[in-house]
Amino acid sequence: MGVVIPLEEITPENRIEALSALVTEDMDRVNQTILSRAASHVTMIPDIANHLISSGGKRLRPMLTLATAGLCAYRGGGHIKLAAAVEFMHTATLLHDDVVDESDMRRGKLAARMLWGNEASVLVGDFLLGQAFKMMVEVGSLSCLDVLSSAAVVIAEGEVLQLSAANDMQTSEDDYLAVIRAKTAALFGAACEVGPILGQRPKAEIAACRGYGVNLGIAFQLIDDALDYGGTSAKLGKNIGDDFREGKITLPVVLSFRRGSEKEREFWRRTLERGEMADGDLEAAIATMHAHRALEDTVERARHYGAMARDALELFPASEWKAALIDVVDFCIDRVH
Amino acid sequence: MGVVIPLEEITPENRIEALSALVTEDMDRVNQTILSRAASHVTMIPDIANHLISSGGKRLRPMLTLATAGLCAYRGGGHIKLAAAVEFMHTATLLHDDVVDESDMRRGKLAARMLWGNEASVLVGDFLLGQAFKMMVEVGSLSCLDVLSSAAVVIAEGEVLQLSAANDMQTSEDDYLAVIRAKTAALFGAACEVGPILGQRPKAEIAACRGYGVNLGIAFQLIDDALDYGGTSAKLGKNIGDDFREGKITLPVVLSFRRGSEKEREFWRRTLERGEMADGDLEAAIATMHAHRALEDTVERARHYGAMARDALELFPASEWKAALIDVVDFCIDRVH
Q: Per-residue pLDDT tens for A36-85?
């Protein structure tokens, strides 16, 4: 165990390599479980599930479950099924999100709903959610079931909240934080909390892991929001502007709107509230964001939550698990450069 | 307790009255639980949930959970939350079904998706499903969690199966039975199985209650299918023809297609496979069904499953609970007249 990476070669990619290396064997078992539990005699189910599951997501959430179980010296096998359950909950959310957002693409591939229809995306999401609960029940920890079923409720609540606030330029930074705490951070928190619960650790350690996960989740989402406008670099990459085209009010928008002139506010109202978009609007949006340091400050906010995530782990003694989990915070934030 | 109904006044409605009377107090607690658990600070959630919950469904499934708990002399309080969870699972399925089927109406009111949009229907369904699991976890019986989470998986699988078989006139009676076993009967079975599990009854009694529920569920669905074409009476009532307009292949269609002439088969292919409908087609469909006794025989099939449901309860000694549960079988079937 233990991965040595020369300092000069540290990039966002290998910041997560220490964690990947630590969980390699467990992750193989998680991937096996994911494949076998997405199976069904109704062939449309594995077709759709595997389309998304094999589309190269980072599997960050299940890795966090494995890593916090490792951090807490858990020796059983329950973390494998719980990690798979966490990934299924995430996949189900993506399937339903694509239907709700009417997205055409997901992870650089056509969204499942474009290939199999909205109907199938809704129902296969329900199937995966059911399988997630079934796996949790098999593990048999009522505390873990409580944490994960509560997260399922909070996630759905957050999604509805986001829908109610959609296209509303009145959204404040606090409103927006409430949305991402629910729709993104709750699952990160739950994924990290079940590890120490399985390991029967004291309450303070369970709370610490949850705090790590929740704050990491917020940081992760804020960086995603910044990346959707090209991050802090001036160059534009691929997959830019999805949030803008879908009229999503994310933190870079909230900050730009508040800091902008009346003319700029009218620009945001026209494009995001009324959905009247023209060629060049995305570029104009990005330029306005840079003018108001909205992307830089979104990343600053992410750093704040990243620092909280890091500090949450302070009560654990030094270990390769702890070091790897702290690297993940840097990984999430450094993606933006 | 005990309700005396003069023989001459027995109608489908009062066949369920004995059960309603037996569970009145418990059902009040279930309704309280349903209302409090559909609450959320995100107001769109109770708005949508209550639109459907208060729309006058019979609450047959939660009544079955209460009644089988009563049959098995369960004395705790867990059946209340499980009954509410069963109703939430059912409501979540209805919300997602309406999106999948693109239905405009539900229980004589505009479908939630018509008032709040598909997005909200998907997400509020997810919320209710999450709340259902949370309530099950609070009850704390891993066996009940196993039964209900397995049902959730089977229901979703059945819905996808139905989607794959949609508009396919090759659907056989066995294919169709597999669909309704999964999408309808599994929840009836689970609703009836958790009662004796809570009551810590022997395996044979648990299996008997499940068998009662599954067979009752099949009978219930077959009668629904016949009712959608006006049942066995010649008069046409309201809410007729939804299945036909949505191109659903139900048992009356399967029987009519198999028994029909080549010309009649072409009629079914045109209307249900290719979706080319014209004025008078629904009336022609019903006439063809009557000509081939397809509706009468669908009801006969339902009677067969109803008899199995009744026999499943034979091993229980006589009680007002048992009598009420047997009345429910007659209630489900007699709706057709």
A: 999 999 999 999 888 887 776 789 999 999 999 999 999 999 999 999 99
Q: Do B133 and A126 touch (CB under 8 A)?
A: no
ipTM: 0.90
**Residue in A40, A138, A156 nearest the CB of B127:** A156
Dump the DSSP string for B296-334: HHHHHHHHHHHHHHHHHGGGSPP-HHHHHHHHHHHHHHH
- Here the CATH number for the domain that contains residue A304 is 1.10.600.10
Nearest Cα residue to A142 out of B14, B134, B43: B134
- Smallest Cα–Cα separation from A12: which of A329, A306, A312? A329
Rg of chain A over CA atoms, in angstroms? 20
| Residue-number span of the structural domain to which A70 is assigned | 12-334
Question: What CA–CA distance (Å, rounded) separates B313 from B327?
Answer: 12
Residue A223 identity (one-letter amino acid): I
A127 SS3 class:
helix
Q: Which residues of chain B are modeled with pLDDT < 50?
A: 1-3, 5, 7
Look up tokens 């933006």; give the residue: A336
Chain B contact set for A100 (CB, 8 A): 118-119, 122-123
Whether B159 is covered by a domain: the verdict is yes
Looking at the structure of chain B, the number of domains it has is 1
In a domain, B3, yes or no: no
Residue B312 covered by a domain: yes
| b/e per residue B25-53 (b: at least 16 CB within 10 A) | ebbebbbebbeebbebebebbbbbbebbb
For residue A283, is it within any domain?
yes
Block residue for tokens 């709700």: A100
Residue A44 in contact with partner chain B when CB distance is under 8 A: yes
